[in-house]
Design a protein that fits this description.
- The protein is built from 1 helix and 12 strands.
- By secondary structure, it is mostly beta strands.
- A hairpin with a 7-residue loop joins strand 1 and strand 2 (38-47).
- It is globular and about 45 Å long.
- Mean pLDDT is 81; it is low at 1-19 and 147-166.
């Protein structure tokens, strides 16, 4: 039994070293009004060694997905994507009008000033999974945007130690 525990502990320690290093900046969730069933979450993601964003979850929504908005002819279309590539060392913007996290079937109104727990799941080139857990501020505009409703970057709560291997 002791050997099994030691082996399991060593495997866990090795996998923690291999966990992806994902930098998340300027995350925010757009505020909602009563009765609104969906909103977006936006941020900048940089993967040190490259990865894919493969999933999102939050307790405030029944469905959380990565979506892409793009023009097709004269029509703006939005669709869910199964994963989003994060090339090594390149920042990928999740922003209004482009890739973003779509929160649907909201369980409550998200007024400005609230915090939304959000878990991002990633896979690296070898298929190893990791996650980043965030507490994201709800705002009307992006952090650093002009206007009195902007949420300062230091209001975003990100625990870099929360990266874990699944």
């Amino acid at each position: 039994m002791k050997l099994k525990l030691l082996t399991a502990s060593l495997l866990l320690a090795c996998s923690a070293v291999q966990a992806q290093t994902i930098d998340v900046k300027d995350a925010w969730v757009r505020a909602t009004v009563p009765g609104q069933q969906g909103t977006g979450a936006f941020m900048s993601l940089t993967a040190k060694d490259g990865a894919r964003l493969v999933g999102v979850s939050t307790p405030v929504a029944g469905v959380a997905e990565v979506h892409e908005m793009k023009m097709e002819g004269d029509v703006m279309k939005m669709r869910a994507v199964p994963s989003l590539d994060l090339p090594a060392g390149q920042t990928v913007q999740l922003k209004p009008g482009g890739y973003h996290v779509m929160l649907m079937d909201l369980k409550k109104t998200l007024p400005k000033g609230n915090i939304v727990p959000l878990t991002l799941r990633f896979k690296d080139a070898r298929g190893a999974e990791s996650k980043v857990e965030l507490n994201v501020p709800v705002s009307i505009v992006a952090p650093g945007a002009a206007g009195p409703s902007a949420m300062p970057h230091d209001k975003m709560h990100h625990n870099p130690d929360s990266q874990q291997k699944h």
